[in-house]
Structure formats: C-alpha cells, structure tokens
Amino acid sequence: MSRQTMSIREKSHFLMQIKPKEKDIAVKCIVKENTKAPLVPLIFFLALCALPSALPAQAQSVQEVVTSVENHYGTLKTLTAKVTQKNRLKAVDMTQKFDGTLWIEKPGKLRLNYTNGQVLLIDGKAALFYSKKSEQLIKKTFTDFQLANIPVAFLLGAAHIRDDFDVLQSDPKTPRSLELLPKKPGAAMKKLIMAADTDGRITGLTIFDRSGNITEIIFAQEVDGATIDDKLFTFKAPKGTEVIEQ
After folding, report:
1. Can you tell me the mean pLDDT for 81-88?
2. What is the helix (H) or strand (E) element at residue 179, kind and residue range?
3. What's the distance, CA 122 to chain centroid?
4. Sorting pLDDT into bands at 50, 70 and 90, what band is 47?
5. Which strand (E) or helix (H) includes residue 89?
6. Interior CA angle at 61 toward 59 and 65, to 5°?
7. What angle do CA 235, 241, 243 make, to 5 degrees?
8. Kind and range of the H or E element at 196?
9. Of residues 197 and 56, more confidently modeled
10. How far apart are CA 95 and CA 151, in angstroms?
11. Three-class SS of residue 145?
12. Burial grade of 34 (CB within 10 A; 0-12, 13-18, 19 or more)
C-alpha cells in the first residue's frame, strides 16, 4: 500500500513501527499532505504520533530485582562511591546531614570518611568510629552487621539478601524499590527500604530502627572494581584521642 492511498489511521499505525529519528520526517510529510483532511481525524493522528514507538518493558518482579542485586554484589570485589546521609533522630527531633566517600573491599572491609572529620572503619573483625571534634575513638566488636546497627554495612552482605531478610514490594509504582524485614530476632533495624538500578546496583537505602530513628543514604559516582590500597582499612588515632572499647 503506497503512502498516498493510506488513511489517517493507517498512517498512524505506520509511524508507530518506525524509528524515532525517522518519525519526525514522516510526520511533517503526512501532515503537509493532509492539511485539507477533516480536523478530527488529523488530531487523532497527531495524538497517536505522540505515543512512544514501543511499549515499555514489563516491570520486574520482586524476586527478579533481588536476584539482580545479589548477582551484582556476589561478583563485586571492590567499590568506591560518594555518599550523602541523613539521620533523623526521633528523641531530639533533629536531622543531621553528612557527606562522605566510601570504600569497600570484600570480604568484610569498609571505610567511610565524612567531610566533617568523622571516620567509620570496618576491618572484618571490628568497627571503629572516630570523631575529630570530640577526639574519641569507639571500637566495637561484633559478629553480625545487623546487630551492630551500621546502616552502610548492609552493602557487605548484599549478595545474600534473602538469607537475612523477608522481601516485599514497598510500592507497585516503583518496582525496583523493595522493603526488607530482618529475619533475625534482636536486629537493630526494624525495616529497610532498598532502591536499585537495572544493573542491580544499590542507589539508596532508608533504614528504620527500633527507636524510631530513620537513616537515609544515597550512593552516587559508584565505581565497581576500583583499585584500593589495603592500608586504607587501617586507622591510627591521633595522639591524645580517647579510646573507648565496647
């Protein structure tokens, strides 16, 4: 069927099948030759032209999203990222905001340097919290990141989410945002909302603890497989720092 003998509806169907770059040229030609056509069919044609050339891909299921995240972090060896963190403290009705740089090396090593002089370091056996302002270093030993209440440490166990959490869809409108409920009794967090991109990379975490506090973490400029100096995962406190062991 030639273009000259096609009806408005047939031309609209034809345009839905071609590439976007070709569509603009075709629309101009067809509108020009139909300037004397009845107004209503022409409007119907233009409305159809505004539709996408292809239907969006079907939304992924909860299990597909979790699998993509577990697969991504299952093969991940190192990671660097920029971090923006907000802590909403219920007891004092206050929100704190921090920015920092994150380094991760599996298995079990993590460092987060905040721009305000605070440092969080996990070496696989213990967690160190250093505050330049208070001149204190808190050392905490643990065997379970969930019990330690270190939100960013979730990334260290992201390859085994379904081992530690029941997974639900938090909002059907955002299928790649999942609600995670800890399976283990005594976990410091009540629930966790995780957002991931189509590659399975975690882009954001929102942690709700049992005291009513909320921690939001956004990851940006993530680099997988970056070269990291192992010395980064050791920390020597400045002279005069008070050391507290828990």
Report:
1. 95
2. strand 177-182
3. 22
4. very low
5. strand 78-89
6. 95
7. 75
8. strand 189-196
9. 197
10. 16
11. helix
12. middle
